[in-house]
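name: query_chain
kind: protein
chains: 1
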Amino acid sequence: MSEKKATAAIVARCQELFDDLNFGAARAWKAAQPGRKVVAYMPIYVPRELIHAAGMLPLGIMGAGENLEVIHGDAYYQSYICRIPRSTLELGVTGRLDFVDGFLFPSICDVIRNLSGIWKLQFPNVYVRYFDVPQNYEDGVGGAYYVRELQELREGLEGVAGRKITDEALRASIAVFNEHRRVVNEVYAARAEAPWLAPTSEVYLLMRAGLVLPVEEHTALLREYLAAIRAEPRPQRDNCRIVLNGVFCEQPPLNLIKAIELSGCYVVDDDFALVNRWLLDDVPTSGDPLEQLAVAFLHRSVETAAKYQPDERQKGKFLIDAVKANGAEGVIFAAPSFCDPALLDRPMLEKALDRVDVPYIGFKYAENSAQMQPVREQAGTFADSIKLWSAA
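structure:
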């Protein structure tokens, strides 16, 4: 198989997984051996290492996208919230998640907190947990709290799996996810270096595949993609390099990503499928594994609107650093409609960009947005203005 065909085959496989709202890959994994269990989770972060150490499959659920009509889900939520809880409920009520043994709802916002309660009422035979995270980042306060949360989660997952999660198994899983993050970061670095070789529409599908495949299989797929794109020449265009921010929870339609690329922008950094690279570097495999996970979350994790930043002087530094590290020329803020964390965060991030003269624009979307021409025109105008003024 030629490298071009290899790249196309990998992307086609990821597209198939992306389109499959019945989660056939996860169902097949569960059916392959008696006693296997699947634990679903909402974005943006859960300690997947604990699920993996219990011998279960972590399954990322990021709504239903644009290909599922939401009928039942609209009955549970008012119209002035984002779409992801409604479409996730639609997946559940229509039986598309009937094989899931547990569901974790991490601390993102009030809407997801409420969704965890609704899920308990609708699916009483499924292990459901609202997974809270600390807002105090002192080791003796937030760290101690988080270790207790992890221990409670550990005990709950042991009940689902019917087996103990030993420290040895957890350390082994930490090592597996360390390797996975290294390869994920390698893909992001390769795109930042030569974005014409790794279009963001492909990279996005590749990262979404990591939410439904076993982590070991996804790591191998990432390596195959890297080898394929490095061997396949692609034309370089005179595109503007931008960072995309605000997409940490509800994901955009794939056509929105393609519209931004077609407008003349290379996306060189983003916060898509953030769980894949939430922790910034390796978690040590020595010592108490729960304490190591807690320290990594407190001190070595990404910044996002759903994570409290106690130091106002540091607000926006992560975004400025991303612009500089990836050679970006501007920032596009893209947030789901009615997403309070992202939309409340944006003005503070815009002020930080103003201080260092980084241009930006912003727009809102929903996971089922259909009209992409205005987005393409807006992003194209933004890219053209950057080229014009940088040339001047």
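note: The beta strands are 38-41, 57-60, 102-106, 127-131, 240-245, 265-269, 330-336, 360-365.
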